[in-house]
Structures are given as C-alpha cells and as structure tokens.
Specification:
The protein is of the alpha/beta class and 234 residues long. The protein is built from seven helices and eleven strands. It has a single domain, classed as 3-Layer(aba) Sandwich (Rossmann fold), CATH 3.40.50. The structure holds S-adenosylmethionine. The site of S-adenosylmethionine has 19 residues, from α2.
C-alpha cells in the first residue's frame, strides 16, 4: 500500500495510507496526541498509582502496545522512563512494519530535541523481533511481528496502548473478541488507553468487563477512552 509522510499541526510527522484514507496519528499533532493519550492518560496515571494499581508510586510496569508503527509511543515512553526512573518492560506488536526508508525520514528525534537518543529511536526499528533488548537500565523492548489476533501472551500487562487503525478501517480490531483477549492479559488494576471514543467501542469494552472512562481528548479531538480492569481488592 502507498504510505506517505505528512507533517501534522504540531510540526511532527505522521504517515498517511492513501488506499485506506487513514493516518497513523491525529493531523492536529502526532506528538501532541501520543503524549496526551498514551503518556498522560495512561503511563502517568499508572505510575502515580491513581488507578489503584499499586499503593504509592509504581517502580516497574509492563506495557503492551498494539501497533508499533512509527515507534513514536515507544520512544516517548522510553524518554519518560529515564525521567521518572521507572522500570518499563515494553512489548510492541506490529503486523505490518513501516518501511525503513520512511522511518529514516521521521522527525521525532529532532522535534523532541532528543538528539542524544537518536540511536535509541533507530534501535526501536532495527532491533530483532522476539528478542528482548535493554535500551537503558530502565527500558526493555520486546517486539512481536505478528497480528494481534495470532499472538499468544505469556505475561500480564499493567497498561495497554491500544493504537490500531480506527474502527472504520479495521472494525475487527475493535470487537468483542479482541477486547476479551486484552481484558484477560491486563493485570488487575491495569488499564487500556485509546484515542478512539466511539459509543460502540465503549459499549463493547464495558460488555467484556472493563470500567470505561471518557476523558478529554488531545487538541482537535473531543474525547478519548481509558478502560480499567477494576478488582474488588482495591
Ligand atoms: C494507527 S497506526 C499507529 C502506530 C503507532 N502506534 C505509531 O505511533 O506510529 C496502527 C498500527 O497498527 C498496525 N496494525 C494493523 N493491524 C494490526 C494487527 N492486526 N495486529 C498488529 N498490528 C496491527 C499497523 O500496521 C500500524 O502500524
């Protein structure tokens, strides 16, 4: 499929798939969206224990990303782990890896003023599949080159970044089967965050057992979702 590099409103790149008429990120700002949805509403919430995952500040967490794509979420999370001194095991699934020529053109390192981490961004893409790689003492990456539907998980995750293409393009990724599977791999007290806040998606998440919050979305998008696995032990 024809994938094009585009510049979003905050100056950061994203990708656009012409045949699907679908972007990898919000056109209102890729970095802005990732920071708001995945770091702000997901990682920061889990780390500060506000979701009741652990008492006090969490010091080690397991994250699962659905759709590694450009590596933006992984890179932002890596940088947060260095700032917050939290140990993160980051598993990323990607069925259709981005072409390396496109990866080389992405401007995230420059936009985030993180030239010191250029090698880390490159390694997120060039590292071997299914081989854990410690990118720092706080961040270990494990990549899986499979469809989510075909992946069997051996660990539980405290946080899921659900960053598949939207329901218009990939309805099968937003149905009961996938969300049931994800409910079972989330640790008690953990959560899933997503940029999509469609009513049908919220209803499906609730049906499979999640407790769903509708939160303010990033600039340009009204809402987003955080779905938690609430336990009686909290
Ligand atoms: C909206 S993009 C977001 C990617 C990424 N999080 C980023 O920041 O660039 C969705 C990603 O999900 C991947 N994907 C699509 N279907 C998938 C599937 N069935 N299993 C795993 N990944 C899938 C796509 O290839 C794409 O990289």
């Amino acid at each position: 499929m024809q994938t094009k590099l585009i510049i979003t409103a905050d100056g950061s790149h994203s990708l656009f798939i012409e045949e699907l008429d679908e972007h990898y990120h919000s056109v209102h700002g890729a970095i802005q969206e990732s920071n708001h949805v995945f770091i702000g509403a997901g990682l920061n919430k889990i780390i500060t224990g506000n979701l009741g995952l652990k008492s006090g500040k969490a010091t080690a967490i397991n994250i699962l990303e659905i759709g590694l794509g450009t590596g933006l979420n992984a890179f932002l999370t890596f940088m947060e782990s260095a700032k917050l001194l939290v140990n993160i095991e980051y598993t990323a699934i990607e069925a259709y890896p981005v072409n390396i020529d496109l990866v080389r053109q992405l401007n995230y390192v420059e936009q985030l003023d993180s030239m010191a981490y250029t090698d880390v961004f490159n390694l997120i893409h060039s590292s071997e599949w299914e081989k854990p790689l410690a990118l720092s003492k706080h961040f270990t990456l494990f990549k899986i080159n499979k469809k989510l539907e075909e992946t069997i998980f051996k660990t539980k995750f405290d946080l899921i970044y659900f960053d598949a293409f939207g329901p218009r393009v990939q309805p099968e990724m937003w149905g009961e089967e996938i969300f049931t599977k994800l409910f079972h791999v989330i640790a008690p007290g953990g959560c899933l965050v997503s940029y999509c806040a469609k009513g049908e998606v919220k209803r499906t998440l609730k049906r499979v057992g999640f407790s769903v919050e509708t939160l303010q979305g990033p600039p340009g998008k009204r809402e987003m979702i955080r779905a938690s696995k609430v336990t009686n032990l909290q």
